[in-house]
């Protein structure tokens, strides 16, 4: 594999050096959540995010029915000091949930209230749990929940990870409150927020309602400023486009555990069918959030000498892998022939990934929330970790095909012609 | 004025070009040709990977002056300057020095011998010099460095074009798999296909060490324009993420005709050299780091590795 931006071509390994030398159950969290009836701007995605908001977002907090009670045994960290070894952390306090203003106006920022995983043996359990993969095995994972308004637990309100999608409108103020007992943060990746709202423990501090000695050095934040919980992040939504958010505490682990999500900034007219003001229009849109798991890492609660050589065994789109992914409504593209489809590729994982659409040509119209100088015509696209690309294509007629994402080794110079693994879904014209 | 002062103080296109640092004593006389001579030794050195963790690495050492940050060497010349690099090989195997697009027809430098590499860079830009004789091994062990070719004439911007900046920084990314370093040190072999690095560096420094060098702690002025010149000196992808900013991508491997021109995360492929310009419009400290998260660790422990900070005041 050897693709380069602007001029991407697949290349056999021998050419490299020469060429360049998750049914759901309802959990009663309503008593501590605030039901304003407003979605707070957060969309539950139902297959296609530009379609009407599903009614299910209005009342219930859902979580993966396969999530058992919070686990009690998480870690051992060879080669680490005892003080730093990953240990189960038992913090019993309930989060303080403050009602959020539901109506975004010019003077009142659009608000969201997020809850981070508490990593407790007792307490909130729907933000951490066992994510059952397509092979039936369970992987311990952490996620964000939006507890404002509609109580969206995960991406499409039906899974633990990735986190809920946040929608904003270009030019408006946003206020996102994080409630977290244990050290976590939200970094708004690509939104170019100021230092105070950047979510990096070193420069911006971390959010934690717990002000005691952290067991097991959780979060590796002991030298950084603590921001009491809840903490409100505020920023101005920049250019229309595709962005992402993630926890930046002990990032190598917290991101891997699933603490990430997609942010969409709409044009100033809030047209959900226009990429940016005066930009390309489309009929339907999909988010493909790219992510892999190295399940061996998920037994730890802090980074350690076992969280460096990344060997993923699950290859996902929108938190689903294998057979679970094939007909996942958020990933499987279904549209009428001739409709214009916008696919937002969001690589929140560690590895370079190639999106392929069964040789359907597509235009790459923007990246990282900014239009390209001119659209690039592609039929596959390399997306690096942290990058976002927006792909626009016309739905062919009479097509049912496999499409998906191939994940490649980080070893750019190595023999990586074959992907480490793939995430397969489908495209179907109706 | 030493190389560090020269590069940091001055402004591109206004007399001469500024870069962050390293005592590259560039004898500038505008619009004049200067034969530049560098004396490099390829040698084994012990490098601190982390507190209490040392490994044997190879490097091109400039015998006259240290390179950027913790690098053994780095080069800044002007386009049109004849350049000679006299390389003495103190390693246990033949090596060479190549520069894509500039020095392709290279000769191997035998063990214990010296050889002159002569070239005249014509195109301003950011380049990578490296050993190719040993395929991937040379770079995996550290035989690589950054070459900055400044415009030949006063008044020219980066890459000889119209992109003008007030300040320049070079961020050279590489990494080590200490199993390889240990094997070489022990005289053993190592299967490069199993290369999985565990320590990561920018300009030879690992966070928080990057906070201690003006090459990797980027002090910049509000309302200025800053070139951040990215070099992938390692064998892995570096998806470089800029906090707080999008950058203008102005050249990739010398190509200035780019489709993707504004990025907050920029993927560096193997040997990629990318020029970016950052318009400093908000104060504060903002990390620049690899978004391959193992690369922001030291042997898995966060935060270490390829993280630098930009401080805008």
Structure explained in plain terms:
The complex is a heterodimer of chains A (430) and B (313). With 430 residues, chain A is mainly beta. Chain A is 5% helix and 33% strand. Chain A has helices at residues 13-19, 201-204, 251-254, 322-326; strands at 24-27, 42-43, 61-64, 110-115, 128-132, 138-142, 145-146, 165-169, 173-179, 187-189, 206-207, 226-227, 231-236, 241-246, 260-266, 284-293, 314-317, 320-321, 333-335, 340-347, 353-356, 362-367, 370-378, 380-383, 388-394, 400-407, 421-429. In chain A, the strands form 7 sheets. Chain A has a 7-stranded mixed sheet. Residues 1-106 and 119-125 of chain A have low confidence and may be disordered. In chain B, strands 10-9-12-17-14-15 form a 6-stranded mixed sheet. In chain B, strands 11-19-18-13-16 form a 5-stranded mixed sheet, with no helix packed on it. Chain B starts with a helix and ends with a strand. Residues 1-18 and 20-31 of chain B have low confidence and may be disordered. In chain B, strand 1 (36-50) and strand 2 form a beta hairpin. The longest helix of chain B has 8 residues, at 178-185. Chain B is mainly β and 313 residues long. Chain B has helices at residues 3-9, 136-141, 178-185, and strands spanning 36-50, 53-62, 75-78, 83-89, 98-99, 114-119, 125-130, 144-150, 167-176, 199-202, 217-220, 225-232, 238-242, 247-252, 262-263, 265-268, 273-279, 284-290, 307-312. Chain B is globular and about 50 Å long. Helices cover 7% and strands 38% of the residues of chain B. The interface between A and B is large, with 60 and 54 residues.
Topology:
The complex is a heterodimer of chains A (430) and B (313).
Chain A lengths: L12 H7 L4 E4 L14 E2 L17 E4 L45 E6 L12 E5 L5 E5 L2 E2 L18 E5 L3 E7 L7 E3 L11 H4 L1 E2 L18 E2 L3 E6 L4 E6 L4 H4 L5 E7 L17 E10 L20 E4 L2 E2 H5 L6 E3 L4 E8 L5 E4 L5 E6 L2 E9 L1 E4 L4 E7 L5 E8 L13 E9 L1
Parallel strand pairs in A: 4-9, 8-15, 11-12, 16-20, 19-27
Antiparallel strand pairs in A: 1-3, 2-8, 4-7, 5-6, 9-13, 10-14, 14-15, 16-17, 17-18, 20-25, 21-24, 21-26, 22-23, 22-25, 26-27
Chain B lengths: L2 H7 L26 E15 L2 E10 L12 E4 L4 E7 L8 E2 L14 E6 L5 E6 L5 H6 L2 E7 L16 E10 L1 H8 L13 E4 L14 E4 L4 E8 L5 E5 L4 E6 L9 E2 L1 E4 L4 E7 L4 E7 L16 E6 L1
Parallel strand pairs in B: 1-4, 3-8, 9-12, 11-19
Antiparallel strand pairs in B: 1-2, 4-6, 5-7, 7-8, 9-10, 12-17, 13-16, 13-18, 14-15, 14-17, 18-19
